[in-house]
Amino acid sequence: MKDVDTSPLSEVVKAFDGKLTGSDRSILSVILNDPEQSVFLSATQLAEEAQVHASTVVRLAHKLGFQGYPELRDRLRTEVKPGVALSQRSQQRMVSIEQGSNLSALIESEIEALHALQKSISQTQINAAAERLANANTIHIVGRGGAAPLTVHLDRRLRRNGYTTNVALNMQRRDLAEKFMGLRKGDAVIFFAFQAPESLPAGYAGLIAHTARIGAHSILICDSTGLTARPRPDITLMVNRPDEGVMQLRTGPMVLCEALAMTLAHKNPERAVDGLEALEILRTNLLNDKD
After folding, report:
1. 147 or 140, which is more confident?
2. Which domain holds residue 14?
């Protein structure tokens, strides 16, 4: 594992090779989805937020290589110090939200989600993922449950850009195996997972291993709990939001998918134009069909 004295907490979690319990994941979900608020929480308060015992917080800190929870929290404070003002504004907004309408609450929640996206994902990470997708013969997309809208949206955007896709949504292991018989070296597989490990697609571990064995690429789009997914994919694109688990909306991941598709189009504009032109020709032919 990387030195915890220098690594961001998210990288420490990603590099951890030991076992994480469901309680551990609940704690990490609270910390990583709202680090600016978490830095003010004691071990007892954090345990209450995660609905676990306070001793579990201390044990998790030790697991990750810290001397205790205070050291873990100090690490978090060094990472989020520039964003404390934003957290204060967030608290002020929440006070006004409680006095406002549901629509106002939704809008403010999504504003915070977009702020979190900007801090948790960089264009460099998106470029790295797009690089692996650009030369794939087929881009496979795997999702489950609440990831269905994202799966459908990304599939549509990629096909419009001229890419061949293969979608596996809510499939069990036997059907998933049949669906991926055509996976080849150089292909790419995109997984969606939120509130992992419960939301990971059935057969995730086996499919990650198969992808690596044949030389295909794996990309995981997830919330902070996805950092605990094992085996690790080649690339993890983690999007957190302060109210994850309460407002289980996917504005951040949807914007990420759009950014990924747009980056791909910019990398290969000829392919994107050809794809759109082919779509328009097909639409025209279908509309003109009198049968």
Report:
1. 140
2. 9-82
Q: Which pTM does this prediction carry?
A: 0.78
Backbone angles phi, psi at 162, to 5 degrees: 95, 10
Residues 44-69 have a mean pLDDT of: 94
CATH number at residue 135: 3.40.50.10490
Local structure of 88: helix, strand or coil:
helix
Average pLDDT for residues 206-225, to the nearest whole number?
Answer: 94
Residues 79, 8: Cα–Cα separation, whole Å:
7
Angle at 153 between CA 149 and CA 158, to 5 degrees: 150
The last residue of a domain, from among 64, 82, 100: 82
| Whether the Cβ atoms of residue 224 and residue 33 lie closer than 8 Å to each other | yes
| Lateral strand order in the sheet of 235-238 | 165-169, 139-143, 188-193, 217-222, 235-238
Query: For residues 249 and 225, what is the distance between their CA atoms, to the nearest angstrom?
Result: 15
* Per-residue pLDDT reduced to its tens digit, 89-135: 455 555 544 544 577 777 887 888 888 888 889 999 999 999 999 99
Residue 107 to residues 101, 207, 227: CA-CA distances in angstroms? 10, 38, 28
Structural domain count, the chain: 2
* Whole-angstrom distance, CA of residue 256 vs CA of residue 276: 21
Query: Are 146 and 272 part of one and the same domain?
Result: yes
Are 142 and 216 contacting, i.e. CB atoms less than 8 angstroms apart? no
CATH number of the domain bearing residue 21: 1.10.10.10
